[in-house]
Amino acid sequence: MNVLLVSANVESLPDPVFPVGLAWLAASLKKNRIPYRILDLCFAEDYEEAISKAIYDFPPDVVGVSLRNLDNVSYPYSVSYLPFYRRVVNAIRTWTQAPVVLGGSGFALVPGPIMEHLGADFGIAGEGELSFARLVLEMEREGMGGGAPRQRSGVVIEDLDALGLPDRTGLDNEAYLKRGGMGNVQTKRGCPRRCIYCTYPLLEGRRIRLRKPERVCDEIEDLVSQGVDHLFFVDNVFNDPSEHAKALSREISRRKIKVKWSCYANPKYMTEELVEEMVFAGCTGVEFGTDSAHPGILKTLGKDLDVEDIRTASELCKQAGLAFCHSLLLGGPGETMETVQHSLDTIVETSPTACVCMVGIRIFPNTRLAEVAAQEGKLEPGEQFLHPVFYLSTGIKEWILPFLEDFSKRNPTWIFPGLKINMDERLQSKLRRFGIRGPLWEYMKTGARFRAYAGSRRAR
């Protein structure tokens, strides 16, 4: 049974993201001796031609399509990716009758409606490494083809180390490093927190499952041998459990791996010892999932941290010379212009390297935020969540956009994706061509210099 794996993500902002989930899936197929090829559409100039050529060169019996995101989760500049995904599936149907199997984190959020919308034959909602291989082998034994859509739940991987290492051989690591500025690695899965909007517990479960630091470092060394000198740890929270983060940092240091890296982190679990270990191991930046800096809003959002945690974590980073960024979500339940001002003032006081500020919170099914929105009449009856639906408090809706436009002029290191402020695809592309590595927010405080440099190069 020949399997064609298609990565359908083509988003390039803030950076093209290496499809590590598909690489894990490939490793599982390889382990089960199932022939496969990977088609990554991220850098394809003509996706239809790329699809036809891949199918001609390697006629598939099954086509797996990975959907990373449904949209850019930005308000008011919102972009749905579903129309493109539909064109991808239609192009596949043009060239082969092989059954189409959908998967990926985007698919798992609303699997039933997406199956129907895209006209797929099968879908696996959740972790697909074991489930997809089993489905392919089942098709081979029983001759299962298309027919009525059939959705399955992914099998939770209890021992992540048993998967081995992700197989990246069918993907362009060099292009992702050149255009995206970094590779990526996952050290754990699962999240026990209760943030009212978050989908991580839905996708990965609430129990944290850890990879051994030794196995993670084996993967890092493999990437470094391929020329990848910057990494991003894609865990939803890298520093919890903190002992695991310390152990991994120490293993990187022990092996003397020459790599720079960054991660997502929770301010609550930053300690002086951990920061020192991370910096010594090559960490250059930390992005805090802060969401708010107002005590009441933090509680409403279900966050397990307080304002003092935010201040302490920021100070630890400054003392260690570690770049740090706060991410904010404005407009949740109970938000007012007063709570917004309180959050912004508090974050400004911490002097972050940058701040990424989102307006409105994307609503997904099976979250507490969806329940609140339904109770408040903010959702249409029978809402399927296929297209972007945002929660935006009535207490700020009328004033927030012009207020932030004005705020951004006084705070040039703040990024507002939904307003397209400091989210410039042309500048991003130029910086990457100049060899800039790592998250671009790490360079926000010298952004003016880079813009001037880019302008001078263009003028020559």
Helix content: 40-55%
Mean pLDDT: 92
Estimate the global geometry from the Cα principal axes.
globular
Q: What distance separates the N and C termini?
A: 55 Å
**How is the largest sheet built, in terms of strand order?**
7-10-11-12-13-14-17
Main sheet summary: 7 strands, parallel
**How large is the share of residues in beta strands?**
15-25%
Blueprint (SSEs and pairs):
Blueprint: E1 3-7, H1 20-31, E2 36-40, H2 47-57, E3 62-66, H3 82-95, E4 100-103, H4 105-109, H5 111-118, E5 122-125, H6 129-142, E6 150-153, H7 173-180, E7 183-185, E8 188-189, H8 200-204, E9 209-210, H9 213-225, E10 230-233, H10 242-255, E11 260-265, H11 272-280, E12 283-291, H12 295-300, H13 307-320, E13 323-330, H14 337-349, E14 354-359, E15 361-362, H15 368-375, E16 390-391, H16 400-410, E17 414-415, H17 425-433, H18 447-459
Parallel strand pairs: 1-2, 1-3, 3-4, 4-5, 5-6, 7-10, 10-11, 11-12, 12-13, 13-14, 14-17
Antiparallel strand pairs: 8-9, 15-16
Helix pairs in contact: 1-6, 2-3, 9-10, 10-11
